[in-house]
């Protein structure tokens, strides 16, 4: 049992070390150099059907990120990260457009410069949305008469999602205090 706990702690430490190394690498690069480095790390799928599915998903995530223009305070970075992931697997052209976009590019570049870490407030909102959507889905599927298998599946997927975002994704304040300060997740020093 203690070996498992120790492995988990080592895993967290190594993820933080990797994030810190990435943050240190990207911190001194110009925006154009960061864009080129990020593009070099992502290769699109060779399958055109898979690429199309990723383009559709990425575009949907960009629309969700765009809600920020209408609703200040809406979490944007998390949707942009999902869009970047999708575009990175579908189209170098769309991925570069997203990284250099005048509305969203700076947020994504800050994400990469922070070592691919998310601000704590974004992680809280993401976990909250996972919980809310899962609870609504469980209530809805229960009213439809599901005997319990659907509810259990939804609850398990929600637990894994919340665990992944909450504990596996590094927080900017743990990786780089400067990135957290620039991202607005910590107060004035």
How would you summarize this macromolecular structure in one to three sentences?
The protein is mainly α.
Notable characteristics:
single chain, 189 residues, mainly alpha, 2 domains, globular
Description:
This protein is mostly helical and 189 residues long. The chain has 2 domains: 1-117, no CATH class; 119-169. It is built from 10 helices and no strands. Helix 3 runs antiparallel to helix 4 (77-88), helix 4 packs antiparallel against helix 5 and helix 7 runs antiparallel to helix 8. It is globular and about 55 Å long.
Record the SSE blueprint:
Blueprint: H1 2-27, H2 31-41, H3 48-66, H4 77-88, H5 92-100, H6 105-113, H7 120-143, H8 149-168, H9 172-175, H10 177-183
Helix pairs in contact: 3-4, 4-5, 5-6, 7-8
How many H/I helical runs?
A: 10
pLDDT under 50 segments (min length 5)? 1-8, 179-189
Overall spatial form: globular
Report the average pLDDT across residues: 80
Q: Quick one: how many beta strands?
A: 0
Main pleated sheet = none
């Amino acid at each position: 049992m203690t070996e498992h706990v120790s492995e988990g702690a080592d895993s967290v430490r190594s993820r933080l070390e990797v994030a810190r190394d990435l943050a240190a690498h990207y911190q001194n690069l110009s925006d154009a150099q960061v864009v080129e480095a990020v593009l070099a790390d992502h290769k699109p799928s060779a399958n055109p059907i898979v690429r199309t599915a990723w383009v559709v998903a990425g575009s949907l995530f960009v629309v969700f990120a765009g809600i920020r223009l209408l609703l200040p305070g809406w979490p944007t970075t998390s949707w942009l990260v999902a869009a970047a992931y999708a575009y990175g697997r579908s189209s170098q052209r769309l991925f570069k457009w997203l990284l250099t976009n005048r509305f969203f590019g700076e947020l994504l570049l800050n994400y990469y410069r922070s070592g691919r870490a998310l601000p704590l407030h974004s992680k809280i909102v993401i976990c909250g949305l996972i919980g809310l959507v899962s609870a609504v889905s469980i209530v809805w599927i229960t009213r439809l008469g599901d005997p319990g298998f659907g509810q259990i599946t939804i609850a398990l997927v929600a637990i894994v999602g919340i665990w992944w975002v909450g504990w596996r994704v590094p927080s900017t304040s743990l990786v780089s205090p400067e990135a957290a300060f620039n991202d607005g997740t910590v107060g004035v020093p």
